[in-house]
Amino acid sequence: MAGTLLLTASSPVSVVHNAHVIRRDADAGEAFYCADRRSLTTLGPSIKGDHVMGLKDDLEKYVVNVLDEKWERRQGQKVPDADDLPLKNLAVELEATVLYADLASSTQMVKRKKDWFAAEVYKSYLYCAAKIIRARGGTITAYDGDRVMGVFIGNSKNTDAAKCGLQIQWASKRIVSEKLSEKYTNSDFTLKQRVGIDASKLFVARTGIRGSNDLVWVGNAANNAAKLAALDPQYPTYITAAVYSKLNETSKLGGDPKRDMWTDLGTKDMGYQIYGSRFTWSL
Fold it and tell me: Which helix (H) or strand (E) segment is 163 a member of?
């Protein structure tokens, strides 16, 4: 039948059909099928005409396999990369501290400001936050729009993460905000940001499809840190009681005379005890 093609495991890597190139990705088990000169569609592993054969079966088989396959666990000695884990049910367990740094009111910034200005703010803020996370011993694990996630492990993970949060606030005020004000003297933009930090055991697994996958971080610390980073920016840095209880004096006490840098905010906002700080820590 004109305009139809069946790609099988023996099909060539690329063939020409109706003046379009059709490729098969052997590793991903996917094919690109062109029914006519007007369309190029990504389809599943078995194609006949313009019908996808086996997609429903493939999805059902995968879900059943995930539910039936026994989980393997191993204790992590480092923060894993996606390439360290297979797509099967194998997870790394870590005792870790998670930090989220998030721009406040970025939605309004995008609505009110030029696109290039918003992009400059994103780039500047995320660059500074990411560099500080790495400098304090954390591992950058994800970027998500206007926020970045870092994971800290080791004996000083809570102290390192808390210091990191205070330094991100310092850089936001003394570097990003000041440079923006110097460049755009008539701008009314005020940069505000929040950092949320929590500690717990994490269950880290690889999820997604071949060619497009990442790690999923299952645990209270990841969820709580993200939620803390969405609180009112009146306190730029938030930590949980689990983090506060493990801080050494360098990250707990500051100022002259020395005093607690963290205000007990109780349980009203989150349902569990949290602390907030308006202190900064210079670089």
Answer: helix 157-171
Give, to the nearest 10 degrees, the angle between helix 115-135 and helix 157-171.
150
Q: Which residues are paired to 75 by β-bridges?
A: 93
For the stretch 70-84, pLDDT in tens is 999 999 989 999 999
Which residues share a beta bridge with 42?
A: 32
The pLDDT of residue 4 is above 80: no
End-to-end CA distance of the chain: 69
249 half-sphere exposure, CB direction, 13 A CA radius: 3
If one counts every other C-beta atom within 10 angstroms of the C-beta of residue 84, the result is 14
Report how far residue 3's alpha carbon sits from residue 180's, in angstroms, rounded to the nearest whole number.
57
pTM: 0.81
Banded pLDDT at 53 (limits 50, 70, 90): low
